[in-house]
Amino acid sequence: DNRLSKRVNEMETSATLAMAAKTRELKDQGIDIIGLSLGEPDFTIPEYIKESAIQAIKDDYHSYTPVDGYGDLKQAIITKFKRDNNLTYKPSQIIISTGAKQSLANLTMVLLNDGDEVLLPAPYWVSYADQCKVAGGVPKEIPTTIETDFKVTAEALEEAITPNTKLIIYSSPCNPSGSVYSEKELRKLADVLVKYPDIIIISDEIYEHINFTGKHFSMAQFEDMYDRTVVVNGVSKAFAMTGWRIGYIGGPEWIARACNKMQGQVTSGANCIAQRATITALENPPSKIQFMVDAFKERRRIILDLLSEIKGFKTNEPEGAFYVFPDVSAFFGKTLRGKNINTASDFSLYLLEEARVATVTGEAFGDPNCIRLSYAASEKEIREAIKRIKEALDQ
Ligand code: PLP
Asked: Which residues are in the Aminotransferase class I/classII large domain (predicted)?
């Protein structure tokens, strides 16, 4: 529609949200769909967090908050960064936003000029590329393969850098691949980045706690990277608080100040009740949510076992988050039940129509050979979904 801006016309609709909408639509028609498309824990919010939100309402929290978030929430975030990551921040380095998605959008808006290049080790989270484009940046994918566990190598990183490179954005644990970068692997990337001091690193650590290796490491923990790394985190995944919309950053003061300015013109401060509840969520030790991590670990085992029985699926062992990202390219060029499968999108659509299982095409994550399945679903749903997929593939 040319009445709309070029900006929005050139933007992709979020593939994960589009699949979720399609799933809802089919469910509303009475069709029994199993949704493995959304990255959303199926747990309810821990009781002590809910209580603190109720208390905040009773305590009459209702006003606009400071644009960058409540001071005592900043303190709780500072304590969390110290406790979990051994990172030291001042309040002026912390900005609280309406979800990590807004934290990321702020960053691209304040850092990118037209034509600035953004390195995205692929597969990457669905919104990075479009957020960059809206801000005038040019996403540059760095492809990886299942053989390197979908992790970018130092050589590939260095090769992708040009004089126009402004940012690198990645998540660890990674959505969609579940890969976790170790300290050693990050150091190798840091050794390349030290040679290019103008590149800023955006480290998306929203899956920090959903890590089955038990070892989370942040690029910002390297002394020579601290001043140029922005850590993005939030409460959506670890605390099952997706709808409460709280995310935050810790980073260089000059960047935080700019995010504050941007947010002040776009949304103002994040929801006041959710900010109060986030204080409680972060003040409690991660051991309180370990039961969710344990459950995800068990479901990962189940889904990997079941997927290994499907011929044509090639899957690595994800070490974190709650996704598997099988390579399904073995099906490309085939005709199943009269339907031609040439791309991951065709395959994902086929599974929706023939298996009644919602997945997301890897094309949305910059990897055209794979599809993403979320195992943030009940064991019963996972078992039924994989059974249906197998049947739909006539296996
Ligand atoms: N970053 C990654 C890697 C994600 O998977 C998500 C959510 O799916 C987000 C950021 C956004 O999270 P939030 O709910 O805090 O906006």
From this structure: 32-389
